[in-house]
Amino acid sequence: MAKVADLDGIVQPAPGLLTFNPIIETQYNDTDPALHAELIAGHIPTAILAFTTPVQKPLWQDPGFDGGRRVCVRTLRDQTFPPAAQEMFMANCGVGWNVVEVDAGHRAFVAKPEEVGRCIVRAAESLYSTQRNCALVRMNRLDGREEVYYSS
Q: Strand 17-20 to strand 10-11: parallel, antiparallel, or no bridges (unpaired)?
C-alpha cells in the first residue's frame, strides 16, 4: 500500500497534514477565478490521520437512517472524488442512499451554494413527505444570513 506522501497530487504542507496540488484544479475547479486567491489563502489542510486511522462503524450504517433517510449530494464535476468514485463508495457502503446531483466540483457549496441549498431543501421536503420526524436544516448564506427549515 502506498504511503499518503507518495501519491500523485498530494503534498504535505506540515507534519501530519496533507493537501492536494494543484489546489484550484482539484478542490475548487469550478469556482469563480476572482475567489481563487482567497480560497487558496483560507484552505485548511486535512489531517493524515483521517486517511490512516482505522474506520469505526460509520454513522450512516445506523438503522435509524433506513427508509430513505440518507442523502448523498453527488458532485458531477468533482476532481477530488470523481463521480465514478462516489458511485463506488455508495455501492460498497452497504446501505441505500437518496442521491441528489449538483453540476459542480468538490467544493460545490462554494461554487454553487444556492443549488446545493435547494438540493438539501428538496431532500428534506422529500423526507418530510414520507417520514413523521424530520431533521432541522440550517443553511448559512454567503451574505451571512441563516435560513432555517424545519418540521413540527
A: antiparallel
Q: What is the DSSP string of 25-53?
A: HHHSTTS-GGGHHHHHHH--PEETHHHHS
User: Do the Cβ atoms of 132 and 110 come closer than 8 Å?
Assistant: no
CB proximity list for 32: less than 8 A, separation 6 or greater: 111
Which cell is 144 given? 451571512
Cβ–Cβ under 8 Å, residues 74 and 101: yes
Q: Which of 99, 106, 145, 90 is nearest to 122 (CA)?
A: 99
Between strands 46-47 and 17-20, the pairing is: antiparallel
Per-residue pLDDT of 117-127, as tens digits, reads 888 888 877 77
Contact (CB, 8 A) for 76 and 101: yes
pTM metric for this prediction? 0.71
